[in-house]
Design a protein that fits this description.
The protein is α+β, with helices and mostly antiparallel strands. It has a single domain (3-76), classed as 2-Layer Sandwich (Metal Transport, Frataxin, Chain A). It contains three helices and five strands. The strands form two sheets. It has a three-stranded antiparallel sheet, with helices on one face. A two-stranded antiparallel ribbon has the order 1-5. The longest helix has 13 residues, at 64-76. The protein is globular and about 35 Å long. The two termini are 18 Å apart.
């Protein structure tokens, strides 16, 4: 199992209190999302034509709640198993 797969597995488990922004960005970009960050603490990930996920970033960390919600959305739209 590669380092990337291990990181993705941790994200899918959703057990951490916070996650590194870079790990979540890589995870979502791997699933076809594009990041938009316009100088505020909010980062919007979009997947055309209709899907978007907004995450709040503080000190390059994202709280576990937002990550769990993002994983739930991906599962709801059958983008991950």
């Amino acid at each position: 199992m590669t380092k990337r797969e291990k990181r993705f597995e941790k994200i899918l488990k959703g057990t951490q209190a916070s996650y590194r922004f870079a790990d979540i960005r890589n995870f979502l970009e791997h699933h076809g999302f594009k990041a938009e960050m316009k100088g505020s603490s909010h980062c919007i990930f979009r997947k055309e034509p209709y899907l978007h996920i907004t995450l709040v970033v503080h000190n390059n960390q994202i709280k576990g709640f937002y990550v769990k919600r993002a994983v739930h959305i991906l599962r709801e739209y059958n983008l991950i198993p």
